[in-house]
Inverse folding.
């Protein structure tokens, strides 16, 4: 009877450890996915800011050119 309890206890502990590692693995995968998504968002925002900056510089140069021409 004692061996049976020890076996069940060790089986329970092993199952808990396995579930813990599986959970950690999936959390790591989800974290990587979120990190990748954040990187994509950051790159997209940087791209958008670059476009706005280039358009603003072009607008300023165009305005200055028109003022100088007039």
């Amino acid at each position: 009877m004692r061996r049976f309890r020890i076996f069940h206890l060790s089986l329970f502990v092993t199952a808990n450890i396995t579930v813990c590692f599986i959970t950690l693995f999936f959390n790591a995968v989800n974290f990587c996915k979120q990190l990748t998504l954040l990187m994509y968002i950051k790159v997209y925002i940087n791209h958008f800011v670059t476009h706005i900056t280039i358009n603003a510089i072009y607008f300023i140069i165009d305005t200055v050119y028109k003022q100088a021409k007039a």
Q: What stands out?
A: The chain has a mean pLDDT of 79. Helices lie at 2-69. The two ends are 102 Å apart (CA to CA). The first helix runs from residue 2 to 69.
